[in-house]
Amino acid sequence: MTDFKANILAIDDTPANLRLLVGILNEQGYKVRAVPSGKLALAGIRQSIPDLILLDIMMPEMDGYEVCQQLKSDELTRDIPVIFISAINDVLDKVKAFAVGGVDYITKPFQVEEVLARVETHLALRSLQKSLEQKNAQLAKTNEELAITLQQLKATQEELIQSEKMAALGQLIAGIAHEVNTPLGAIRSSAGNISKLLNQTLEELPPLFQSLSPEEVQDFLGLLQRSLQQEISLSTKEERQFRRSLQRRLEELAIDNADIIADRLVIMGVYQEIETFIPLLKKPDSLPIVEIAYQLSELKRGTDTINTATERASKVVFALKTYARYDNSAKMVPANLSEGIETILTLYQNQIKQGIEVIRNYAELPPVLCYPDELNQVWTNLIHNALQAMNYRGTLRIDINQFQQQAMISITDSGKGIPEDIKSKIFEPFFTTKPPGEGSGLGLDIVKKIVEKHSGKIEVESEPGRTKFTVFLLYN
Q1: What residues are paired with 409 via a beta bridge?
Q2: Which superfamily does CATH assign the domain made up of 325-474 to?
Q3: How far apart are CA 77 and CA 377, in angstroms?
Q4: Residues 6+ apart with CB under 8 A from 52
Q5: pLDDT per residue over 198-208, tens digit each?
Q6: What percent of the chain has pLDDT over 90?
Q7: Does 301 score more than 80 pLDDT?
Q8: Is the pLDDT of residue 460 over 80?
Q9: Who's near 59: CB < 8 A, 6+ residues apart?
């Protein structure tokens, strides 16, 4: 508990919530004044200035953001800590709450311990602030204590930034889980097929070699070797064309089961220059022979699938690790721009792969001295906006080039474009064209601030079917 009797103003249009808050705080000795609307609260606040305000966001007539903005514009009330309370648990809503002057955010339904902890913490901070203001003349004597307090606040801020970053990552987690589960499923399926085919083929090989002449054994091994050397991946249409052509050729040679054998050979990648294998294929029992060769070649294809899936899963895990990291050294370090962009593309792969064509044009540039984690937030916002602008259907082009003594990064989408009359407003805080609940209008404002922190600039060009954001970063 704090060492003074605190006055708390609770503003919420839901009577049940007010009753719950009053009950929780009264039990701890706080004086609580409950008001059911923002307008009533603003009208009477000068009569009794509270030490802390609990403010609901979603209220009729005047929402919590507007109430907070008016409080912060009034010299008498600007220093009162405001804790937002809301059932909305969206990252951008939290960002907006902090941007208009809130000091904290509590999500409904309330947890008693959380409400008390946050209220007590901010009352203590408020008490400390008042004490520091009253003892301004003694600042020289308390310099060391202030330095320690500042360091603690800085550490807390870094933890909050990382926490919000993880919350943003939570919005992507379903797609990322899919990107990991898909290769894991391929590995599981391929491993099962390999085990099944291996057991089956080991039983069939001895009788097969006993039934073949030395020349036929060489033809069989040659067929298998040809298949194992194939690296070409055919489309479904190409497979169908080659299968029909090969089937006609086998039928002309009066080879039994021409359709099944053609299907197996095309899958094995053996569909051209088959003259060497015709004697083997003309044998009365050629189908079982081809089936065994097919099964053996499937072992290699299953292994290739496992290798590809493992590489894919490792790439997603690496991207997650890179994005989740937070460098609290506050020092600029040399970084490869394309690696940061590829990290974000990997995290968005599930949203991209269904209907987005990604065109990469990366020039080889020297590393740029920067804050890599913050630039990753720039790429995240620009790529996410581009995908939304295209409704996840279209072309995303990313160019990295050098322009004079600057790195130039362009992200272009094929969406409907930005209307000319709002183009000048898109970097303004809280300006958004998205439907309610999908954005607070802070994304491009954050992007611009990060770019300017790097002594760079960002430009936009837009017309229907083509919108390009270009970031310029200086080589330091």
Answers
A1: 400, 471
A2: Histidine kinase-like ATPase, C-terminal domain (3.30.565.10)
A3: 34
A4: 6, 7, 8, 9, 80, 81, 82, 83, 119, 122, 123, 126
A5: 777 777 777 87
A6: 23
A7: no
A8: yes
A9: 11, 12, 13, 37, 38, 67
Q: Where are the beta strands (DSSP E) in 282-439?
A: 333-335, 356-362, 368-370, 394-403, 406-413
pLDDT tens-digit series, residues 344-381 = 888 788 778 888 999 999 998 999 998 888 888 888 88
* DSSP conformational letter for 359: E
Confidence tier at 82 by pLDDT (50, 70, 90): very high
- Over 90: is that where the pLDDT of 398 sits? yes
Chain mean position to CA 5: 45
The CA–CA distances, whole Å, from 48 to 33, 43, 44, 65, 136 equal 10, 11, 7, 21, 26
User: What are the residue ranges spanned by the domains of the chain?
Assistant: 7-136, 180-312, 325-474
**CA 64 centroid distance within chain:** 29
- Pseudo-torsion of CA 245, 250, 252, 257, nearest 10°? -120
Report the sign of the C-alpha dihedral through residues 173, 179, 185, 191, in that order: negative
Residue 384 contacts residue 444 (beta carbons within 8 Å): no
**pLDDT tier at 1 (50, 70, 90 boundaries)?**
very low
pTM: 0.43
CA 101 to chain centre: 27
Q: How far apart are CA 86 and CA 67, in angstroms?
A: 14
**Lowest mean pLDDT segment, chosen from 9-13, 274-278, 404-408:** 274-278
Whether the Cβ atoms of residue 227 and residue 293 lie closer than 8 Å to each other: yes
Average pLDDT across the chain, whole number:
80
Query: Could you give the CA distance from residue 104 to residue 83 in angstroms, rounded to a whole number?
Result: 5
* Look-up of token digits 């600039």: 457
DSSP H or E run through 473:
strand 466-474
Q: What angle do CA 273, 279, 281 make, to 5 degrees?
A: 80
Do 224 and 298 contact (CB within 8 A), yes or no? no
Beta carbons within 10 angstroms of residue 204's beta carbon? 15
The bridge status of strand 82-86 relative to strand 52-56 is parallel
Q: How far is CA 102 from CA 79, 275, 313, 404, 456, in A?
A: 10, 79, 40, 43, 30
Token pair for 171: 């919005």
- For residues 229-245, b (16+ Cβ closer than 10 Å) or e, as one string? ebeeebeeeeeeebbee
State which fold the 7-136 domain adopts. Answer: Rossmann fold (3.40.50)
Kindly report the backbone phi and psi dihedral angles of residue 234, in degrees, each rounded to the nearest multiple of 5, phi listed first: -95, 150
* Ranges of H-type helices in 74-142: 91-99, 112-134
Equal CATH topology for 7-136 and 325-474: no
259/190: higher pLDDT: 259
